[in-house]
Amino acid sequence: MVFVGYSETDVGNILRDFFLFSGFAMESGVPTSCVYATGSAAGRVVLGGFSNRKKFEVRVWADATNTLAQVESVMSGASGGLLGVIRERGSRDEFKSRLEVFLQQFAKK
User: Fold this and answer.
1) CB-based contacts of 76: which residues, under 8 Å, 6+ apart?
2) 87 CB-near residues (< 8 Å, 6+ apart)
3) Is 24 helix (H, G, I), strand (E, B) or coil?
4) Residue 56, burial from CB neighbour count under 10 angstroms (0-12, 13-18, 19+)
5) Spans of all domains in the chain
6) CATH for 2-106, among 3.30.310.80, 3.30.420.10, 3.30.1050.10, 1.10.3210.10?
7) The whole model's pTM is what?
8) What tens digit of pLDDT does each residue of 13-39 get?
9) Residues facing 30 on adjacent strands
10) Which residues contact 49 (CB under 8 A, 6 or more apart)?
C-alpha cells in the first residue's frame, strides 16, 4: 500500500487503529513494525481449524516520496488441516476487503 502525504508514524497509527477496532491486539513490536493477532495460539493447537486465530505482520517504511505499508497474514491455516486452510483463505479475503474499505478514507483525491 502506498500513502502520499503521511509519515511512517501516521500510517502505523492508522493501521493500529484499524486492527484494534477489528478486535486484534498488538502481540509484539511498535505500530510501524509489529504483529497483530486475535484468538488463542493454544486454542489453535487444540482446536485446529475450528479455532478463530488470526495473525498479521505489519511493516511501514518510507522512500523519497511516499510512505509504504505491507500487511500480510503470517498464518497458513495448515495446523488446522484442510478445514483450517480453507477458513484461513476465506478469512484473509474478508479481512482484505475490510482493510481496503477502511483505507479509502485516507486516499488523496
Assistant:
1) 85, 88
2) 49, 77, 80
3) coil
4) buried
5) 2-106
6) 3.30.310.80
7) 0.77
8) 999 999 999 999 999 999 999 999 987
9) 33
10) 77, 80, 81, 82, 83, 84, 85, 86, 87
